[in-house]
TrEMBL record:
It comes from the Bacteria. Keywords: Membrane, Transmembrane, Transmembrane helix. The chain crosses the membrane at residues 7-34, 49-73, 85-105. This is Uncharacterized protein. The lineage of its organism: Bacteria, Bacillati, Bacillota, Clostridia, Eubacteriales.
Amino acid sequence: MNKYFWLACILNLVLGALSFFVLALLIMSFIYIADALSWIIDPTLDEGILLLLLILSITISGIYFLILIFTNINLLKKIDMKKSHYIIFTLVILIFGLSTFYYLLYLL
């Protein structure tokens, strides 16, 4: 195993943990959209945050997925693995990072 393999492990673990925040922002956006369309009525939601939250979630999601895609493409070129094995490896590490971060938040 070369140093790029371990770099890919650590990087995908961190990106998996960061995906928790991206998913949380997207879920909050959907809740505010449903409230704006009167699909749900929740008096605890603040008025006027919908546009700000949508812009923030779209921007952060775009930056996150660009970083995820381009870094893994560059690391795939440096690691001697089949593309299908690298995709499976990346998905497993991302899911492990997401679940580990969620579990650590649950402990707090």
